[in-house]
From TrEMBL:
The keyword Ligase does not apply. This is Plastid-lipid-associated protein. It comes from Quillaja saponaria. Pfam families: PAP_fibrillin. The keyword Transit peptide applies. PANTHER family: PLASTID-LIPID-ASSOCIATED PROTEIN 4, CHLOROPLASTIC-RELATED. InterPro entries: PAP (IPR039633), PAP/fibrillin_dom (IPR006843). GO terms for cellular component: plastid.
Amino acid sequence: MATKLAPSPISAFHVIPPIFRALKITKAPGLVPGIHPRTNTSIFGEYLSGFRPIFKAKGTEQTSGLVGDETLAQNKTELYQSLEGINRGIFGIPSAKKSEIEGLVKQLEYQNPTPDPTLNLDKVAGCWKLVYSTISVLGSKRTKLGLRDFISLDDFIQIIDVAKGKAVNVIKFSARGLNLLNGKLSIEASFKIASKSRVDISYDNSRITPDQLMNLFRKNYDLLLGIFNPEGWLEITYVDDTLRIGRDDKGNIFILERSEEISP
């Protein structure tokens, strides 16, 4: 039987666009980049001095839409290549790799084909799988949750129901030594449109199933929920038919790809 516990207000893991956090966008379009010492502004939003947007401003001559499409496809390919072998970044990555990924994310954000995502929620609806997040579980947190040797993190899934204004983040686990026990943490949240690119997210409830897995996490349940709870706001900075990028109110980046999985 699923167990429901009310969380204490702890910083959230916006998987919801983190997962769901991925639904929130930053200025440079989940689902807001960090503070930079010097920025310039273009029709594509703010960008670092010395970093040039991919496209020319309106009114300037462009070669063809095909060139832009090819550049976008190439940037997506490079981003996926940079994400190989890092396990979604959940247990930390070198700072150079983190900077590389953020640079590729910014290039895609400047090319966002859906600049007003909350006005095109059909692009956001459905099931998504987290492929990268700047949220990480390190040190004593990882040890307390048994994520070093005993419990493994599997898929992070987010299901967004636009009609109901609901999102469900599902974090799957497998526990070694218990006949490979499989289970999941499900976090349900509501969202409301705050702007053309941002949504406000509020926590509804959570549960861990089966009970055996809940018993493993019971002592540190608040810690677990504090990491993955999506509450806050999320800016959707990029979304197309297969990829979504978001930034949350804590400055985290979330990258998700569309998934065929439909059940939470």
